[in-house]
Amino acid sequence: KAGVTQTPRYLIKTRGQQVTLSCSPISGHRSVSWYQQTPGQGLQFLFEYFSETQRNKGNFPGRFSGRQFSNSRSEMNVSTLELGDSALYLCASEQGVGTEAFFGQGTRLTVV
Amino acid sequence: AQTVTQSQPEMSVQEAETVTLSCTYDTSESDYYLFWYKQPPSRQMILVIRQEAYKQQNATENRFSVNFQKAAKSFSLKISDSQLGDAAMYFCAYRSAMATNKLIFGTGTLLAVQP
Questions:
Q1: In chain A, what residues touch B91 (CB-CB under 8 Å)?
Q2: pLDDT tens digits for A7-28?
Q3: How far is CA B3 from CA A10, A20, A75, A79, B74, in A?
Q4: CB distance B103–A33 less than 8 Å?
Q5: B90, B21 Cβ separation under 8 angstroms
Q6: Among A101, A102, A105, whose Cβ lies nearest the Cβ of B103?
């Protein structure tokens, strides 16, 4: 069974640009959550999707958005990038609610 | 709001020895889950062990076991017979049982294993 796939693995963007990150969950999993990991703030929850519906959102500005498609794949978008958005973005996939979370290897975003 | 605190930024253990990582949390909820995740240099988070708050029995997975003290809101991880492959960042995490998959993480403990 394939694991959680995040693309791209590495990304360099310029301040002011926008970026889209992709997460393909494990087959049959309907829940996808996103986390931002930085040395200063640690691991912070961004949002959670279940069957195409956003069920929960973390305390991030509106520049951070996401969506989930009917095949459970999810994308997150960050507009008007700032230097502080440089981070490892992790995606977690789950079969349902309260089940085990399986993480992808993350996308390392660098904003210059 | 729930919080998770890991007070040990770094720990070191000799191979084959036992080490305990500490975690405390704060919540007003009575039903929740607690987890320990391992993040090796590959960055991929791996579930080590899970504890349901309603279960009094401490969870065990091979060399990994927890000491769950619900009243004290404490959730420590014991690694027995430490191996070089155990070297990683370890995160304690909390999840409400209220229909969400949101995880709240502690700041992590970097574990070094000395040969």
A1: 43
A2: 999 999 999 999 999 999 999 9
A3: 30, 30, 27, 29, 12
A4: yes
A5: yes
A6: A101
